[in-house]
Design a protein that fits this description.
Radius of gyration: 23 Å
Distance between the termini: 23 Å
Oligomer: single chain
Shape: elongated
Largest sheet: none
Order of helices and strands: HHHHHHHHH
Length: 225
């Protein structure tokens, strides 16, 4: 079947370019926030990554998505209808991804513009320590990023952004207390358990797709038997 052939092609290409870079399956999985079991299934042709994951794989392997979709044993211009259709979908996805980056950039500019505006207003009114507006822009910017990416179902950078929210908020709180005359640097220690919780939380969900796939495959094998 054409779709089974495409799965095998994608799997061969992922394995080929991964090995060229000297990456293990676990190393590649870490870069795209997936489990090594998922990468193994892709390379064996048992499953195929979704379009967004395909784009992320291509970026990490240093190739285009078209190369991952191509037949490694065929001539460069020999592409079937399925590859052509997926290529068109990928082109649209890349365009949407570029649009999303622009939206994220504009959102960041807006956050820092508001911080600058508050600084100018407070400084004009001779309000002391008006520079604190910039420190609060750090967690605010990360919050906007998490909200937008979650709305787009793109969770790959959320671990970093949530960490920025935690540490940015603690830093802003510390600086605020410091200008009030309270040297409570120990408030920053609260970030340690917070960071550990974030790491464990995302590690749990990173291995979830592979576990679900394994369970589904076992259920299918039982049904067939």
């Amino acid at each position: 079947m054409e779709d089974e052939k495409l799965k095998r092609q994608i799997g061969k290409n992922i394995a080929l370019f991964r090995k060229k870079l000297g990456l293990t399956q676990a190393g590649l999985a870490e870069k795209i926030n997936y489990s090594d079991k998922a990468v193994s299934k892709w390379e064996r042709g048992e499953s195929v990554p979704d379009v967004l994951t395909m784009v992320a794989l291509a970026e990490q392997l240093g190739v285009t998505v078209d190369v991952l979709l191509s037949d490694p044993d065929a001539l460069p211009k020999e592409t079937g209808p399925v590859q052509q259709a997926m290529g068109q979908v990928v082109e649209k996805t890349l365009k949407r991804k570029a649009d999303k980056r622009i939206i994220l950039g504009l959102s960041s500019v807006l956050v820092w513009f508001v911080a600058l505006l508050l600084y100018v207003i407070f400084a004009s009114l001779d309000i002391p320590n008006s520079w604190l507006a910039f420190s609060y822009a750090i967690p605010a910017n990360a919050i906007v990023g998490v909200c937008l990416r979650s709305a787009w179902h793109d969770y790959r950078s959320n671990q970093f952004l949530i960490s920025a929210i935690v540490w940015g908020s603690l830093l802003s709180l510390y600086l605020t207390l410091r200008v009030l005359g309270l040297d409570v640097w120990r408030v920053l220690l609260l970030g340690i358990p917070g960071q550990l919780a974030i790491l464990l939380w995302f590690r749990m969900f990173r291995t979830a797709p592979s576990t679900e796939t394994d369970n589904g495959q076992k259920g299918t094998e039982k049904t067939n038997s």
